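#onboarding

Welcome to the new folks! Below is a worked example of what a typical request in this channel looks like: someone posts a single protein sequence, and someone else replies with the predicted structure as tokens. Don't worry about understanding the tokens yet, we'll cover that in week two.

Example request:
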Amino acid sequence: MAAGIQVVIDCADPAKLARFWAEALGYVVQPPPPGYQSWEDFLREQGVPKDRWNMASAVVDPDGKGPRVFLQQVPEGKVVKNRVHIDVVVTAGLSGDEALARLEAESERLQSLGAERLDLLSELGSTWIVHRDPEGNEFCVH
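Example response:
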């Protein structure tokens, strides 16, 4: 049996970060279970206290090809560099000035969503831009 994959991000505000990653990746916030119009309806029926409704969120690839990204609320803030990070790949099949222009355009789009640009790096024929999401988690645009 093939194993699936899910990327999990610890954060303070799962709903806010889910909206960022949905836009960044071309994903959608995961819809509520069948039979429910909203997550609030589902959580209310399950008896979850309103102050716990933002304990988790998830974003999914609308085409069903990419991994699910699960965002879970944790009490502690981010302290050190991520050991695992997400790469947003936008330059597949491109090179030179065309690839750099695509990287820059995607970096600008992500910054408009709340990302912070950190550095433009090149090594071994590859160029990428390092960013932080709205909660400080590092990710790269390749």
